[in-house]
Amino acid sequence: MTPEELGQRFLEPGLFLKNPIDQISAGTGAGCSVLAGIAALCLMRFFTVPTAQAARLSVIWAMGIIGGFLC
Predict the structure, then answer these.
(1) Helix, strand, coil percentages for the chain (3-state, nearest 5)
(2) What percent of the chain is modeled with pLDDT above 90?
(3) Which of 14, 23, 32, 66 is 20 to 30 A from 57, alpha carbon to alpha carbon?
């Protein structure tokens, strides 16, 4: 194959993750990262407020905003 044909073949879909296990691993890793990041943000907000009522309200606002961005 010529370099031009190889370059075009590289850009075609379906050549990056051929193995289904690789696809599952990539998707699960990304999902776990997002989940851990959201949990960390909520915990930071939870520990920076003076009262339990303010903490609940803060977490509700944070989850609403984060949910809005993720949807």
Answers:
(1) 75, 0, 25
(2) 0
(3) 32
